[in-house]
Amino acid sequence: MTPPLPLRRRTWACRWLASLLAAGTTLAAAREPDFGPNVHVLDPATPGLQQRIDDIYAAQQPNHFGPRRDAILLKPGTYRDLRIPVGFFTQVLGLGAHPDDVHVIGDLRSTAFLDDNATQNFWRGAENFSVTPTLGIGDNTMQWAVSQAIPFRRMHVRGNMRLNQNEGWSSGGWFADVLVDGTVNSATQQQWLSRNSAWGRWTGSNWNMVFVGVRGAPEGEFPTPGQRYTKIERTPLVREKPYLVIDARGRYAVRVPALKRNSVGVSWAGGRSEPGKTLPLARFHIARPGETAAALNAQLAAGKHLLFTPGEYLFTETLRITRPGTVVLGIGLPTLRSDNGQPLVKTADVDGITVAGLFLDAGAQDAGVLMEVGPPGSRQRHRADPTVLHDVFFRIGGAAPGQVTTALRIHAHDTLVDHTWLWRADHGAGVGWTSNPAAHGLWVEGEDVTVYGLFVEHFQQAQVVWRGNGGRVYFYQSELPYDPPTQAAWRSDHGDGHPAYLVDPAVTRHEAWGLGIYSVFLQPGVRLDRAIEAPRAPGVRFTHMITVCLVDKGSIDHVINDAGDPARCQGGSNTSTLKAWP
Predict the structure, then answer these.
(1) In terms of Cα–Cα distance, which of 452, 448, 305, 451 is closest to 378?
(2) Which one of 114, 236, 346, 492 has the fewest beta carbons within 10 angstroms of its own beta carbon?
(3) pTM
(4) Is the pLDDT of residue 7 over 50?
(5) What is the pLDDT of residue 570?
(6) What is the Cα–Cα distance from 306 to 308, expressed in whole angstroms?
C-alpha cells in the first residue's frame, strides 16, 4: 500500500536529517583537536611541508635554553624525499598504530650543536614511525648525534644509524622498542642504554654500553676495551610509554601499553599490536601554556587524564595526581616551573599512574623537591600495577638561576622509572656553586623501585641516595659537580667529596648494572675518595663499573667503597674499571 504523500515526505525528511547528523558526526570526528600553535599536525599532502619543518628547525637548533617548544605530529602515510632535522625542544611523533604506518623516505637527523661535538645535544626526540635514510649521511645511514634527554622510542630504521657526527663526541643516549634493520655504529658515543630493541649488528664501544632485553647484542663483555658491554638477557618488568594515535576517521586516542614481564625485543615486531588499552582523546584535558595548576587539578579530580602541549607552564601550586590509572602525557617537552617554592608534581599512593614526557625546571625559591612519587610513609604495594615515569627530565639552572634540595623523591613502592635525566646545570645562565644549589638528584625511599636509564649529573652532595630495599638500576651515568671551589667545601661525613651513588647502610637488597661516573673538576686540589658507597650485604651487588677522570685536575680514588684503582688525570690512568662487587 502506498502511504499518503505527507507521510512519505515526513519519512524522507527523517532520513535526510539522519544523514545530516551522520555526516556531522563524521565531520566532528575528523576535526583536529586544538593542540595550540606549537603542535604541527602534518600529512604527506601538507602544502610547503619541507619548509614548515625547516622553519621549526631554524628556530630550535640554536634554542639551547630558550622558551620555545615544538611537537611535530605525522599522520599515517608515506613521506617521500623529506628531511627532518631535529633541534632543541622538538619531538617528532608518528600517529600510526604501528611504526610502519608513518614512513619517512629521506632523512631524520640530529646535528651536533658545537661543530662536530654533540655532548650538548639535549632535549629532543623521535617516536613511533619508520625512516628509510635515502638522504642521510651516505650508505643508507641516518645520523643521530645526541647526548642526554633524547628519547628514541618505538622506531623502525630501515637502514643504518650512526650515533655521533664525524669524529666528534656524543655523550649518553637512549633506545627503547627500536628496530634497526642494518648496523648501529656507536662510534665515539661515550655511553648508551638500549632496552627491548633489535638490529642487524651493533659496532663500537667506549665507556659504558648497556643492553637490556635486546636481540642482537654485540659479542664481548665489560671491561675489555672496545667491548665494554653489559648485557641483561631479559627486561624484568616494564610498561612501554603511551603514545598518540589517529584512526582512519581522524579520531585521536592515546594507546597505553600493558605491563610486561621478562620481555625481549620490540613490542610491535611482525606487525603485532602489543596488549594494552586505548583511551579516546575525549577522556583527556588538553593542557595549554597559561593554564594554572588549580585548573588542571580540577580536571584531574573530575576524572580526566592530561595531555600537556608544548610550552612553559608557570605554577603557583602543586599539580596533584591522585586517581588510580591516571595518564599525564606531555608532547614537545612541556616545561613546568614554580618560582614561589611549591613542588611541581606530587602523586598519591595509588595504582597505575603514568607520567610521561614532562620537563621540570627548578624555580627561584627552593621547593624542597620538584617531583614526589607517593607521599612520605607510603605503604601500599603496586606489584601488579605500578606507577611508571617515562622520559621525565629535571633541570636546575641553565635557563635562569634555580635551586632545589632534591629533584625527584620516590616513596611509592614498586615504582618504575623508564629514562630520566636529572641535571644541575654546568653551563648556561644562573650557573655556579651558590647560583644553582641542589643537593641530590634522586632520593628513593620506596621498596622494589626499578630504573632503566638513570642519568644524574653535577649535584652538590650524593647524586643518588637509595634507602629502600629491592632497588634495581639498569645503566647509570653521572658526572660529578664541576664547580666545588675547594675540597673543604665538598666533603662528606665519610671523607673527601660526596659519592655519586649512595646506598644506605640499612639496605640489604640492591642491584645495579653498568655504572659510569666521571669527574671534570675545574679547581686544583679537589678529589673524590669513592664514586659509589654501599653496605656489604649478601643482597647488595654491583656489576660493571667505570670511573673516568677528565681535564687535568683531581681524581676519583676508588670505584666503590675502598675497592677499585684510582682514576687520575695526572700521574696515572684516567679510567678505572671494576667488573663486580663484592
Answers:
(1) 448
(2) 114
(3) 0.94
(4) no
(5) 78
(6) 6
